Automatic annotation (TrEMBL):
Taxonomic classification: Eukaryota, Fungi, Dikarya, Ascomycota, Pezizomycotina
PROSITE patterns, per the entry: KARI_C, KARI_N
Pathway(s) per entry: Amino-acid biosynthesis; L-valine biosynthesis; L-valine from pyruvate: step 2/4; Amino-acid biosynthesis; L-isoleucine biosynthesis; L-isoleucine from 2-oxobutanoate: step 2/4
PANTHER family: KETOL-ACID REDUCTOISOMERASE, MITOCHONDRIAL
Keyword NADP tagged: yes
Binding site for Mg(2+) 1: 264, 268
Protein name per the record: Ketol-acid reductoisomerase, mitochondrial
UniProt cofactor note: Binds 2 magnesium ions per subunit.
Organism: Mytilinidion resinicola
Amino acid sequence: MAARQSSRALRSSVKQLASAPVVQRRTFVSALSAARAGFAVAPKAAVSSPFQQTRGIKTIDFAGTKETVYERDDWPREKLLEYFKDDTLALIGYGSQGHGQGLNLRDNGLNVIVGVRKNGASWKEAEQDGWIPGKNLFDIDEAISKGTIIMNLLSDAAQSETWPAIKPQLVKGKTLYFSHGFSPVFKDLTKVDVPKDIDVILCAPKGSGRTVRTLFREGRGINSSVAVYQDVTGKAEEKVVALGVAVGSGYLYKTTFEKEVWSDLYGERGCLMGGIHGMFLAQYEVLRERGHSPSEAFNETVEEATQSLYPLIGANGMDYMYAACSTTARRGAIDWSKRFKDILKPVFNDLYDSVKDGSETARSLEYNSRPDYRELYNKEMAEIADLEIWRAGKAVRSLRPENQK
Ligand SMILES: NC(=O)c1ccc[n+]([C@@H]2O[C@H](COP(=O)([O-])OP(=O)(O)OC[C@H]3O[C@@H](n4cnc5c(N)ncnc54)[C@H](OP(=O)(O)O)[C@@H]3O)[C@@H](O)[C@H]2O)c1
């Protein structure tokens, strides 16, 4: 979902975040006092009914809808090694996901090789991570020729650009793996029309490649979506679940290529990034225009959200959050949530339409394959970094204890 350059930049900042303690700033939230006052703040179980398990597949009731979920525990390392004993996993591309998934596969003991263009930034990074040229690091064509399972982890724009060269190498017997449904689902635009005689599967970790790696090293697993686009061998579903576990997934949620890509493009443009950035900017600008200082505007808009409230919502849900804040905050927040929802829902419907009809894909492919893409991208990032809100944020963050010398 993120461009290569930004995902590289993210690697270091996410690393810092992972190691930094969460700082509890002064806030209107007081979970403890709410608990003492007898509010119903006990976190609820994530699922409302117990697992029903059949041969490694679990059906879980998510708020009344039963869904299929696979679990890492059903694929211990020995089973993975046995399952993939005759396979060579050729991981093409070594950006955010290539790095995370590749290192996890290697640590799991599987026969994995990396294919990237020689002398590119990824080649150097792969070497720094211990991949050895001629042994398990090759140029793209050579890696594909050696691989039985071709894991296409090039950027989405690059998947489309390189497809004419890659497609003829995907001969019968190989398996094609993606981490996003983008290329095959929008094949009219991307031109990625997969050969008819191979299995085509997807495991999309729901997080950055850095998180895929960090969670694996902590002995945990990331949530991933898994899907089958084409099942020629009759084994595609089993294979993608095994691969998903091997790359570092904990729970694997069954979906389709279409649903994965539609929800992913929609989410990142909405609550995950675009929508939330728009909301931050709108709230901050109003505070500034009404005479509040940059630090006050930033603290009330971003800092308190990301450092205090969002982690609590993430851990326990919105009902917990409402129960854990002051009565004043709760009344106002519940009232205004309805107004925001009503105003924003038509925007979200427009966004979904724009994703589903391919407009977002066309825009992304057109923009990201322009020759001056890098320049435009750098200019846009510099403009965002230069917004007052994010300059103020830099100063606020520098005051966090972990950033003090
Ligand atoms: N990033 C995420 O958070 C995330 C999360 C879930 C799924 N995904 C999916 O995972 C896949 C990989 O995404 P990513 O973010 O890991 O990619 P990325 O960081 O953008 O990696 C790009 C890779 O593509 C290579 N590349 C770019 N242009 C190329 C070209 N013209 N020819 C050959 N190689 C080229 C780069 O090599 P050079 O260094 O040589 O340029 C690099 O190795 C995508 O389908 C993406 O949607 C990503």
